[in-house]
Amino acid sequence: MAEMKLITGKDAIRDALIEEMKRDPKVFLLGEDLEQATFGVTDGLIEEFGSERVRNTPISENAIVGAAIGAALTGMRPVAEIMFADFLMDAMDPIVNTMAKARFMTGGQAKVPMVIRTPSGAGLSAGAQHSQSPEALFMHIPGIKIAVPSTPYDMKGLLKTAIRSDDPVLFFEHKMLYYEGGDVHVGDYTLPFGKADIKRKGKDITIVAVLAMVKKALLAADMLAADGIEVEIVDPMTLNPLDMETIIGSLKKTKRLMTIEEGARTGGIGAEIAARVAEEALDYLDAPIKRLGGRDCPIPFSPVLEEAMYPTEDSIAAAVKQMLG
Amino acid sequence: MDKKFLLGLYETMFRIRTFEEEVKKQFEDGNIPGFIHLGSGQEAVSAGACAAIKPDDNIGSTHRGHANLIAKGGRTDRMMAELFARETGSCKGRGGCLHITDMSVGSLGANGIVAAGIIVANGAALSAKLQHNNKVVLTFFGDGATNQGKFHEAMNLASLWALPNVFICENNLYGEATPLAKHMKIKDIAVRAKAYDMPGVVVDGQDVLAVFDAVTEAVKRAREGKGPTLIEAKTYRFHGHHIGDPETYRTKEEVEEWMEKRDPIKLFKAKLLKEFKVNASDIDSIDKKILKEIEDAVKFAAQSPTPDPSNLTENVYA
Question: What is the ipTM of this complex?
Fold first, then answer.
């Protein structure tokens, strides 16, 4: 058995960055305020690796993503940080029109081995422009791999895979998971993209949840277990590629499917999963699919209102009971 | 100056012109689909600039990118096949005019999005710095691109990090269908360099030697680690923004005057004969060679297979 240690999410990310930078001199970091380290992820990395490899940038998201693309096209493996996922919108052009398409539109001449890491999600009363969960937006863009880790163990293993990937990867780090603890392997390990992880086994209903919603689903599952309801929780780990095989395998057993995400329900992750299940596995379902998610509303500042935006363990448990009749 | 070098500049410009005029004909004959943006009239900028760098240096390019790529050494047969949307094209028919690229000669790619290539070119320059390989990047863009936020973000970052990136504005006086005076208040785009504490140089974009000299100096500065330069080459496109552009924004007389008096190839040919005492027969044999090359490129393109739809989704991912 490999040695384990208990660390926070932010330190799991940090460990992955440190280990990958030590392993491969082509890996370097760039982003805003990396020196001060907004959420602590890049704490001390300039001291360790120097300001050539850990590059503090101006507040210029287009220039950051563009520079990462250009560096990736010419032999480097950049890891760019976009300080808040909301700021990805500033750089939509290089992300969508260049990063995602360079390999394809050059007929395979280009490769773009880069990662954009970005803190997403609500919970800090940060308001409508610092709290969004825009993962699903990027599922609509062919050419971008998307990682959505929910535990420190997954964060470290998936980030290493992302950095070693020859495709561009958008790596979402939910802010509320940065300070949650979890066991990780000491030293090197990777986790595959496109392989869902069953976070809890059960026979009565399949819940597909991502990022911070995995923990809420687990809490709801504990509550439901007291009533004799066994919930199976599938964490897809990556949205592109999306492991429909594991999701469908689970619902063949449970006959029921619920999806939970933090982003807006409309056009969301659950919408895509529900559509694919409707196409590929409708006959296995004994009940309509239930999608839980953020309300179709910008994210409010008020903590009371912010809490009302999202599924909670109580609302998840109630929705499960309703589905099971 | 070395005659071989001078004839080389002429050859590049004549290759670009012949290619572009043949593309226009092939498009009008229905052999090329899509939107085509021609660079006739702007040959001296690409030819002069690319003569100032080495084969393993990189260039960033634009929607009007054929000239940039030819000057960097792109093969005209594979480029023609790309425009014909054939499997033998440099991008296997997946890119077309707007995305024409040959990475084997150091092109980072043409771009359908105005100013998109500038920020990417910075990254290649950063790469050179991190790899200590002394490479430089030339970033081509138009006058319209300098009104984009990406241009300003890129200029600031390149200046701050002293990136070996030479910013080359091909100011052809029109941003698509809008004349310069209607899209910016300044007369010389080069003044924008001041805001980023880098040299800003105006050069006659119809004079291939003037372009070569300006870029040579900027490249030297870049290789010495002194950072970027903004070069504004004043030039003119002989055709519309794209083939089929109704060109309501300029007069026929204006275009004819430029073609008559400011054609960079005519100007340079006259200079070669008068000032540099080049034999007319040397120029003629270049012309013959290029005309044959482009004729062969069309044959190659026309005979090449179209892509196989069963391979449609290849190269979306590694």
Answer: 0.97
